[in-house]
Amino acid sequence: MLQRKKNAVLVDGVFLNGPIADARAGEKFVEDACKIIMEEVIQKAADVTEKVCEWQPPEKLKKLLDLEMRDTGEPHQQLLQLCQDVIRYSVKTNHPRFFNQLYAGIDYYSLVARFITEALNPSVYTYEVSPVFLLVEEAVLKKMIEFIGWNEGDGIFNPGGSVSNMYAMNLARYKYCPEIKEKGLSGLPRLVLFTSEECHYSMKKAASFLGIGTQNVYFIKTDERGKMIPEELEKQVQRARKEGAAPFLVSATAGTTVLGAFDPLDKIADICEKYGLWLHVDASWGGSALMSRKHRKLLHGIHRADSVAWNPHKMLMAGIQCCALLVKNNSDLLKKCYSANASYLFQQDKFYDVSYDTGDKSIQCSRRPDAFKFWMTWKALGTTGLEERENRALALARYLVDEIKKREGFRLLLEVAPVIKERMMKKGSMMLGYQPHLGKVNFFRQVVISPQVRREDMDFLLDEIDLLGRDL
Asked: Which GO molecular function terms does the record list (predicted)?
């Protein structure tokens, strides 16, 4: 201590005598915490005897967890116990019987990729600070563009499909009236966009956020399966034009959130071409069917889209978040729309090819290397392995439908869903989402993604619902 004080420099009352952090203690904490993660999360991921969740109501959970931040730091063992508690009371989304959302399961290769990026803590805006991850993103985007069926294109990874949809809406508006970037909304006609009544709620949010207005989102009727009706779309386009509005965008959906419906993209594209409208396809959920030769027909006509949102963190399990916006236009439209030309970051006189400084295509500055997660999984499994995941998940869904038809006591729509959901959560046996739809009562929505899911888990799901709701 005397030697350290002797050599120290005092500035503003602070001794500047070397690093303040204890590297050895930090390394030990990382090592011990990684053991906990391995034992309590990874090794238990496929164990159906483990609970999906240890449910606690909010006020009780606040008492069980030590949430207070104090003036002084806490000791090593206490921090490790906090790690244990966080894992214990969190929902195990990697459990084979977690069916609650449009993501599930554990992909070990994506997980390692996340460990690497968390440790390196990169930001993907310029080649000089993130050379590997920018090249990875370029390679992944190029491959995804090929699967859509475009000869060329552009794209960017974003923090969520909702953001990708917002990007696409703004890009379509910029293409329609480029002067909006500098002059703003004043003087513009009333812009109108069209999307199905089964679309993701992010379309409405994007219209609000961008100043288009939610009243200028025309929701198109769907058929009994939840698909947009093209004839209804054309009627609404004609209506908007008669009203003196300016139609500029149609957003189709490939894999709706509740029913999993795929809009008829070819027929919608015909209407967009006829009226000069930008066609965006929200394939956040269903885009992964493009990886399957058997099921890619669900997205027939997607190659005619101007932009596509596709989330590999859903069916392809790349880890939240991993979401791409893909654009057919290869004339730097993304960059023209979003660039701000920050001179301290995107200098044009750098010693390397500055076309690799892709960050100005994004509304973000700091941006995570999300493509790396998908790239690592794709490298490990290959296209064939990803296709097998897709085919198996859809086969399990078909099996469940067939089993439901055979069982007495099961109907497609039943009002007891909330009670059964409460019981399964408190028991921790599985997690299954429910919702109402178009005036119908609450019903369960079964989602199959994880490769850890077995045929036996489908049977268990029906048995458990029967058991939990037998007295209702």
From this structure: carboxy-lyase activity; pyridoxal phosphate binding
Question: Does residue 256 fall inside a structural domain?
Answer: yes
> CA–CA distance from 445 to each of 24, 117, 163, 225 (Å)?
49, 34, 25, 14
Helix axes 455-468, 371-406, angle to 10 degrees: 60
- pLDDT tens-digit map of 287-313: 999 999 999 999 999 999 999 999 999
Strand partners, 279: 250
Q: Which of 367, 377, 313 is nearest to 112 (CA)?
A: 377
- Write out the residue range of the structural domain in which residue 234 sits: 122-368
The number of residues making up the chain comes to: 472
227 and 195 in a common domain = yes
404 and 255 in a single domain? The answer is no
- 278-283: strand order across its sheet: 154-158, 323-327, 307-310, 278-283, 246-253, 191-196, 217-220
Do 159 and 234 fall into the same domain?
yes
Q: Assign residue 393 the CATH number of its domain.
A: 3.90.1150.170
**What domain count does the chain have?**
2
Q: What predicted TM-score, i.e. pTM, was given to this entire model? A: 0.89
What's the CA gap between 426 and 423, in Å, rounded? 5
**Domain contains 16:** no
Q: What is the pLDDT of residues 185-220, one digit of tens each?
A: 988 999 999 999 999 999 999 999 999 999 999 999
Q: Pick from 422, 406, 415: which is nearest to 440 by CA?
A: 415
